[in-house]
Fold this sequence. Notes:
By secondary structure, the chain is mostly helical. The chain folds into 2 domains: 2-104, Fumarate Reductase Iron-sulfur Protein, Chain B, domain 2, CATH 1.10.1060.10; 109-370, no CATH class. Helices cover 64% and strands 2% of the residues. The protein is built from 16 helices and 2 strands. Helix 6 (89-104) packs antiparallel against helix 7 (109-115) and helix 13 packs antiparallel against helix 14. The protein is globular and about 65 Å long. The two termini are 42 Å apart.
Amino acid sequence: xxxxxxxxxxxxxxxxxxxxxxxxxxxxxxxxxxxxxxxxxxxxxxxxxxxxxxxxxxxxxxxxxxxxxxxxxxxxxxxxxxxxxxxxxxxxxxxxxxxxxxxxxxxxxxxxxxxxxxxxxxxxxxxxxxxxxxxxxxxxxxxxxxxxxxxxxxxxxxxxxxxxxxxxxxxxxxxxxxxxxxxxxxxxxxxxxxxxxxxxxxxxxxxxxxxxxxxxxxxxxxxxxxxxxxxxxxxxxxxxxxxxxxxxxxxxxxxxxxxxxxxxxxxxxxxxxxxxxxxxxxxxxxxxxxxxxxxxxxxxxxxxxxxxxxxxxxxxxxxxxxxxxxxxxxxxxxxxxxxxxxxxxxxxxxxxxxxxxxxxxxxxxxxxxxx
Length: 371
């Protein structure tokens, strides 16, 4: 159903759908262009967020799914802070990203996750139980495993978990292929030059530094170490360091527990980075210093909680190893740590974590046309 309003033909069915992804006020926009004027990342040909308000209101699904510009925004919230109609364009962009992630995921599960909080909570709990059972299946000689396998066959748990992981990996591959196809550009920049700029942007969020630079911005003049730019950077590099440390431990299987062992150093720094960044960001979502934090989707909360728990439990285990603490509590903390880390990766294509896949692809094609 499409109706007419004073500015543009509105696709009410699509508008209602995007509202379910979290954008509640964007219909109030009267196309004044303030959001684009105050956005330091907007440029000729990339006039977001005003452009996305029009796409959302007209139901331009294909244009949204193919838009690289959707991932160029860092959600600093300047547009929402200055919007005279409180249309919250920053939240609209976040909602359109959720819509895109859900559209790139073939099972339809992501749509339920982003639209239905109880479903997401139930899914994470069920997956946690499955992961716990799968982990126990690797040690069938333990007392808990012997009790569990009286009721559930070992083979069902073991191979069922592996099958689930393979299906989720295929989902990531599907989203990757579709996004590469959608974001492909006809730019003529050299591959290595484009890759260099993309890597630089992914590694230090250089464009993010242009945000929040107005004199009346809440973050202007605040210490760098509490600004959203730096906090997002600590989370990103926390993941990278933990991934590298985990990979090295797995490859070399070295039992060395000296405090200065390289993998221990990387893991500790990574864990502390995750705890620091996620703690402050969760604090901002509670205290709501700017409009960008006024509303937080349950999916975002769960993602942040998983990040924090992964860092906290990892740090706990480091301390426990050095202290030779092998109590039942330590084993339980280890189980929680593995489950949190595994859930984030297994739900990669179903959650906000998918940003780390789609943003670099969009950035690569952006620089390909810009350089």
